[in-house]
Amino acid sequence: MIILGVDTTAVIGSVAVCEIEDNELKSHVVFTVKNKLTHSETLLPMIDGALKAYGIGIDKVDKFAVSVGPGSFTGVRIGVSTVKGLATKDDKPCAAVSTLEALCNGHKDFDGVICAVMDARRGQFYTALFKKGIRLTKDDLLPAGEIERMLRERGEKVIVCGDGAELFASLCGYENMILSPEESRYQNALSVALVGARIEEIKHTELLPCYLRASQAERERKERESEKKQ
Amino acid sequence: MEKIYITENARETELFGSKLAEKLKKDSFVALFGDMGAGKTVFVRGVVEKLIPDAVKLVHSPTFALVNEYIGDDVKIYHFDMYRISDEDELYAIGFDDYFGNGIIITEWSENIPDSIPSDAVRVSIRPLDENRREITLRGLEI
Description:
Number of domains of chain B: 1
CATH topology of the largest domain in chain A: Nucleotidyltransferase, domain 5
CATH class of chain B: Alpha Beta
Number of helices of chain B: 3
Number of domains of chain A: 2
CATH class of the largest domain in chain A: Alpha Beta
Radius of gyration of chain A: 17 Å
CATH superfamily of chain B: P-loop containing nucleotide triphosphate hydrolases
Distance between the termini of chain A: 48 Å
Oligomer: heterodimer
Helix content of chain A: 25-40%
Strand order of the largest sheet of chain B: 1-7-6-2-5-4-3
Structural class of chain B: alpha/beta
Order of helices and strands of chain B: EHEHEEHEEE
CATH superfamily of the largest domain in chain A: ATPase, nucleotide binding domain
Strand content of chain A: 25-35%
CATH architecture of the largest domain in chain A: 2-Layer Sandwich
Structural class of chain A: alpha/beta
Distance between the termini of chain B: 12 Å
Largest sheet of chain B: 7 strands, mixed
Largest interface: A-B, 11 and 13 residues
Number of helices of chain A: 7
């Protein structure tokens, strides 16, 4: 199956065209940029370039996978709306990939807990924990202290990835933790495509951004707390 | 560390902005506080006059546009007005976070976004003493 993967949820923009069979990557082209241009300027030329380099037209794409958030408000919207537009023409299936799951997918062979952290500012991080490709926590918006508490509770070896990794590491005193190497620390559309290949297929009309906004997370937390009390 | 300055008229408030501009980094965050008519936009005009003289005519309060962008050759200034912003969600939904690290950010009506002002921000409060004189309180930067 030919998958087009897209991630524009943060400063980096990334596009992948690849063939994936039974979760195995057969062939691929990946373009990733981090420059002064905005995603709205680079995304379509990158998609065009990646398809050309792979040697196919967009009609040969079987499925569109896109990071739907959490992440930058503008970035998420550019990625989701572009993919929506491309998938609409021939009514192609899509996959809504969590940015955090795609980040962790790059470390799925790590023998311990993978902790993705994206800088959400105001002292908060978008975060989720995974282990060997299994999700341990849902995507959430939390302060560093709360994430540290979760990691301590588990007491396992941890690798941190994502654009908030360095900042988080400076705030978190958990000892058994390493920083993901710089070259695999950030969003990569190949991971988006790999996750997109195995998750539920949806119609382009169902593709929606997942902002994971503060108030949404806070409301949910309050609900959880009130449930506990009952 | 806070320091208080008195300016005698609008031109002096403008020049105070120019003086402060010399000390700003390319990605400084300047949070302005003060009521309607205090002189926040006058201050911003002074900053722009120093850093991007060609753009000084464009400076006005972005109350409805939310942000004005003044683009110079090697410096960018993003001039926000938070008057109509009522909570953090709205701030996220105008893409505010995407401006960080790309240039100087100056926010009018910073009173409305207390949790979004970075801890290393320069804080400027302007208070009218009479029609022309202003008391300016500066925190987070020495000039």
